[in-house]
Design a protein that fits this description.
Elements: H1 13-39, H2 46-78, H3 82-86, E1 102-108, H4 113-116, H5 120-129, E2 136-142, H6 147-164, E3 171-175, H7 182-193, E4 200-204, E5 209-210, H8 212-224, E6 228-233, E7 236-237, H9 243-267, E8 278-281, H10 282-288, H11 303-313, E9 317-321, E10 327-329, H12 335-350, H13 363-394, H14 403-417, H15 419-430, H16 432-435, H17 441-472, H18 493-517, H19 521-533, H20 535-543, H21 545-554, H22 576-586
Parallel strand pairs: 1-2, 1-4, 2-3, 6-9, 7-10
Antiparallel strand pairs: 4-8, 5-10, 6-8
Helix pairs in contact: 1-2, 1-14, 2-9, 2-13, 2-14, 2-15, 5-8, 9-15, 9-17, 11-13, 12-17, 13-17, 13-18, 17-19, 18-19, 18-20
């Protein structure tokens, strides 16, 4: 049964947002103290002024990380079902099966269909077993432009549809001749021309995996509250055959649980949309989320958050469900793939600068866009801070800097930036029922230590890459919106060197400057500069299949989906039927 809005608990958004802002200010004040005590003694040099400016400019993102983490940690420890606290519609779900009809819409572009289609098998089987098969249709929405690839794609879908014939959920395929508007255009064209008879659509990417209970819960949420336009479920990384993805997503998973819970508490009905593993109401999405080009004629690349902001402005609710069960995605398998994805996101997010001043947006909508911008703008600011610190040391400016406050500044800043995952690990270690699926406390602790070491080596490389990319972006250095590589593969030394020589050179120049300054200046810069110097071997090592196999044998960074699975499972919710489909498609 559907409940009216007035039966949902009063949430007082202004009070919550004021409390969140106060928490951010308190964190910022706490971080200011060691900075002042580090720089103020002995007077100020020009480069220390630059350090102060750059550090203050990065502070909003740092405070956002720490405040979301503290809120999320408190909610997840204080309530058995924190998701229902931040998404009260969960308490009023109608009984299944669903009444509304849903299109399962999966977007394709130059994908390996033998890896895309098998994960759909357990989802479709589960929906049919739940007696809901007549309420769903699977749509494969292709933007593949190459005729040969398109022919193979169509043949694979036809074979898959034949295997599914008579089971309940129809399988449909549509390919556009021109990929106008990229994914956003693909989705809107489908909604305009093919979605008749459906009230909802579930947005899936080619690497998405969702379970039937997770999808049915999303549909039930939409039925419980007719003002919901989007419910975005939390997304975890699916079991990865590559070492890079395995290490990265272990920390990402811990951090996103905490971050999303804290953020959902204060953003309430004006939450985020990440483009997939989310359910959307078709009528308001068609009416309000249609994207026109930017003033200079370019298409909007990062469409998802703009679509959510448009729905906020039209009075519709966009909510986040901070629960990861039944919702997975693939992560980039190697460092080059990861950097390429970051560049695509950076190019898209920086377009939001042209949209911030548009009339009609809510204050929270502008905050959402600004948050997406800060994620990338912080990178060149950190690079500026590093350069200023090296030049300050090289010119003798750091001679009076006291070691104690400087160490406190580095440690508190690092802890604040990484607070979501650190508190995510703490949550697991403190809760026996939550740590058990990961193999127990010892397994989580070993995985956390391995991931922190990995991230210590990764973060300087990604920050430098974002900064260098953003510096090139105004001069036509955009990455475009290219298809993604999703397959684990090794990286040759020469390919890694071709990509990462600027990062290595930056590290060498920085270390040379600090060594020339004398004293212990080099030791303070080593945690950031040495990973840059070692970026090339780091790239090669984390892409090696043998290294990934060693991590699996050691059980490092194991996730619940791997429990009881020998070797690297190809799909998080797979099984014999999924393997059978994969075999048929490959043949």
């Amino acid at each position: 049964m559907t409940i009216p809005d007035n039966r949902l608990p009063a949430e007082r958004p202004r009070l919550r947002r004021a409390a969140f802002l106060l928490l951010c200010l308190l964190i910022g004040a706490g971080l200011w103290i060691p900075l002042w005590r580090s720089l103020a003694p002995g007077g100020w040099t020009f480069w220390e002024g630059v350090i102060l400016f750059a550090w203050l400019a990065t502070l909003p993102w740092t405070c956002l990380c720490a405040a979301n983490a503290l809120l999320g940690f408190a909610l997840r420890l204080g309530f058995r079902d924190a998701a229902a606290v931040v998404l009260p519609q969960l308490r009023h779900l109608p009984p299944s099966p669903p009444a509304l009809r849903t299109a399962l819409a999966l977007c394709l572009r130059n994908e390996d269909m033998a890896t895309v289609l098998p994960p759909l098998v357990p989802l479709l089987d589960g929906l049919e077993a739940a007696g809901a098969g007549d309420r769903f249709t699977l749509w494969l929405l292709s933007d593949t432009q190459d005729p040969e690839l398109a022919a193979r794609e169509a043949a694979a879908v036809a074979a898959f549809a034949t295997l599914r014939q008579g089971r309940g959920i129809p399988v449909r395929y549509r390919r556009r001749m021109h990929n106008t508007g990229f994914k956003a255009g693909n989705v809107m064209e489908f909604l305009d021309r093919h979605a008749e008879g459906h009230e909802l659509f579930l947005s899936l990417d080619a690497d998405s995996e969702m379970s039937a209970p997770a999808v049915l819960r999303l549909v039930a949420l939409m039925e419980a509250d007719p003002k919901l336009a989007i419910v975005q479920q939390l997304i975890a990384g699916r079991p990865a055959p590559s070492a890079f993805a395995r290490l990265f997503q272990f920390g990402m998973r811990a951090g996103m649980r905490i971050w999303a819970t804290g953020q959902a508490w204060w953003q309430l009905d004006q939450g985020p949309y990440w483009g997939h593993n989310a359910i959307l109401r078709i009528a308001p999405f068609r009416a309000h989320a249609r994207l026109e080009p930017l003033p200079d004629g370019r298409p909007i690349l990062s469409h998802d958050q703009i679509e959510a902001v448009r729905l906020h402005a039209a009075g519709w609710k966009v909510r986040c469900l901070p629960a990861e069960e039944g919702s997975l995605e693939g992560n980039p398998p190697t460092l080059p793939d990861f950097l390429l994805r970051d560049r695509r996101w950076g190019a898209g997010n920086m377009q939001y600068l042209a949209l911030l001043r548009r009339p009609g947006l809510t204050a929270m909508g502008r905050v959402q866009l600004l948050q997406a911008i800060l994620l990338f703008v912080a990178a060149p600011l950190w690079l500026l801070l590093l350069a200023a610190a090296v030049l300050n040391a090289a010119t003798g400016g750091g001679a009076t800097t006291p070691a104690g406050p400087l160490l406190a500044l580095l440690l508190t800043g690092w802890a604040a930036l990484h607070a979501p995952k650190l508190l995510g690990y703490a949550e697991l270690l403190l809760c026996p029922d939550r740590v058990a699926p990961y193999g127990g406390r010892a397994a989580v602790l070993r995985g956390a230590l391995a991931e922190i070491l990995f991230t210590t080596l990764l973060d300087p490389v990604t920050l430098a890459d974002k900064a260098l990319f953003l510096l090139r972006l105004p001069f036509g250095g955009g990455a475009g919106w290219l298809p993604q590589n999703r397959a684990a593969r090794g990286i040759r030394w020469r390919d890694a060197a071709r990509l990462l020589w600027p990062h290595t050179l930056l590290g060498l120049l920085g270390m040379a400057g600090l060594l020339a300054a004398g004293g212990h200046a080099w030791a303070w810069g080593a945690p950031f500069l040495l990973p840059l110097v070692g970026a090339i071997p780091f790239c090669v090592l984390t892409a090696r299949p043998a290294f990934a196999a060693g991590l699996r044998r050691a059980g490092l960074c194991r996730t619940p989906e791997e429990e009881g699975v020998a070797g690297p499972p190809p799909h998080g919710f797979g099984g014999e039927r999924a393997q059978e489909v994969s075999t048929v498609l490959r043949v």
